[in-house]
Specification:
8-stranded mixed β-sheet; 5-stranded mixed barrel; 28% helix; 11 helices; binds adenosine-5'-triphosphate; binds magnesium ion
Length: 434
């Protein structure tokens, strides 16, 4: 029998290892080889960085011809300060061993600063495309958004939950829901964690979830995926939806500060600029429609309206975010609380960022009778929602929350033209693999 202790568990490369004169050993992928005559540059791609090394036959006796793009190696050498290299250092190689060599060359230009291929090629060879440092940076930023979100939530007394994605009822209504057979029963993929996160407010007061959300979007837009990552929170004891909006403002500030502190590497690779957040302007849906100059009878903002409203507020206030409040109740889900002043509008808001909706949130109904009455008004059968209605039957505090789309946030932070580039393995109407 063998027993496994934790002593000597594998380490990983960090930039701290780059110190002038230090001996170094690291494992990486050969990103690019640039022969320069008497020597060659060998760029080594680690899990986060691309580090410059130099090969000369005087210093290194191992066979140079084995150093090809895509080969995985362990190298050793000496670190030397070199102002022109990434991170200000290079490694003078004195040994390397090949760990694994690919069977074929990359079908894409992985070492280019930007991939520069078509979206079709990018998605077809996705496993290769995301090896490009510019492409992969989006996913480190996504990690930072999630971690910034999680930290802020936990500092503010929210409990992390994970709720079922296989469900018996649709949360959001509408046609964009995936149906499937669950043994002998009809079932749906969760369109949001709405019901369960509300349920958990009665248990934990404040909850959050980072999990997949499914939408059967049939159109091929640059801002919709069929599976995306929802950053959701829900909290009790609120006075109004403005408490949720204040919470989101504080959350965004904290997330941006977290990215600034920990993700300069990726911000530099992508040339992204983080937004400055002080206060976020808020206007009603009707005011927003007016600013967008569209038809006053519209019941939702279309993508062009969202761009116009954002442009307007960026110019007027400098804010890259804007809240839109008081949407027509008919366009919001049955769980949204109606406004006391005007029951045709809901206590519900969107947050736009750089011309795109990234959040919908609001205050929810907490009273059992009010919820049943609203379902009936919306031609829904309360019997179809019996288990959901139990949470109100047995008591709920006043509460509200929101859903933030991770890929949309990353797309806008990095100014990506297509949301697919913010999803490792995007699911759209044409792609179920890779
Ligand atoms: P849209 O009107 O832009 O289609 P929605 O109002 O249907 O979005 P919500 O139900 O409000 O979306 O979902 C909450 C958040 O989840 C959105 O603000 C957005 O950030 C994100 N989101 C919604 N649908 C998608 C999708 N298909 N792909 C990626 N993100 C999405
Ligand atoms: Mg929405």
């Amino acid at each position: 029998m063998k027993t496994i202790g934790s002593a000597g568990y594998p380490g990983f490369f960090t930039l701290d290892a780059l110190k002038d004169g230090a001996a170094i050993t690291l494992s990486a992928c050969v990103h690019k080889v640039k022969p320069m005559g008497a020597f060659a540059f060998v760029l080594l791609r680690t899990g986060r960085y691309v580090v410059q090394a130099t090969y000369t036959p005087e210093n290194c006796k191992d066979d140079f011809s084995l150093l090809k793009e895509g080969v995985y190696v362990t190298v050793s050498g000496v670190v030397r300060a070199e102002a022109r290299a990434n991170y200000g250092y290079e490694i003078v190689l004195d040994r390397f061993t090949v760990l694994s060599a690919p069977a074929e060359e990359y079908p894409l230009h992985v070492s280019a600063r930007k991939l520069g291929c078509s979206m079709d090629a990018n998605l077809k060879y996705r496993s290769v495309a995301i090896r490009n440092p510019h492409e992969r940076a989006a996913f480190k930023i996504a990690e930072g958004v999630c971690e910034g979100f999680r930290r802020f939530m936990m500092q503010n007394g929210f409990t992390e939950i994970h709720t079922p994605k296989l469900t018996a009822t649709g949360d959001e209504g509408g046609a964009n829901i995936f149906k499937f057979k669950y043994f002998d029963q009809n079932a749906f993929l969760a369109q949001s964690p709405q019901f369960y996160k509300q349920t958990c407010v009665a248990v934990f007061d404040r909850v959050f979830e980072i999990d997949p959300v499914y939408r059967a979007e049939k159109h091929n837009s640059t801002r919709h995926l069929n599976e995306y990552t929802g950053l959701d929170f829900e909290m009790g004891y609120i006075d109004s939806m403005y408490d949720i909006m204040a919470m989101e403002t504080a959350l965004l500030k904290s997330m941006v500060a977290f990215l600034a502190e920990n993700y300069q590497n990726e911000l530099k690779i992508t040339g992204a600029t983080l937004p400055t957040i002080t206060e976020i302007p808020a206007v009603t849906f009707l005011e927003a429609l007016e600013i967008a100059g569209g038809n006053k009878n519209k019941r939702d903002l279309d993508p062009n309206d969202e761009v116009k409203v954002c442009d307007y507020f960026r110019e007027k206030t400098g804010s890259e975010f804007v809240f839109i409040t008081h949407f027509p109740a008919a366009k919001r889900p049955f769980y949204a609380m109606d406004s006391k002043d005007d029951p045709h509008t809901a206590e519900s808001f969107d947050l736009l960022f750089r011309g795109l909706e990234i959040t919908t949130g609001g205050q929810r109904i907490h009273d059992y009778y009010e919820q049943v009455a609203k379902m009936k008004r919306m031609n829904l059968n309360p019997d179809d929602f019996a288990s959901y209605l139990d949470i109100f039957k047995y008591g709920m505090p006043p509460h509200g929350g929101l859903g933030l789309g991770l890929e949309r946030v990353v797309m806008k932070l990095l100014d990506l033209p297509n949301i697919r580039q913010a999803s490792l393995f995007p699911r759209d109407i044409n792609h179920l693999e890779p």
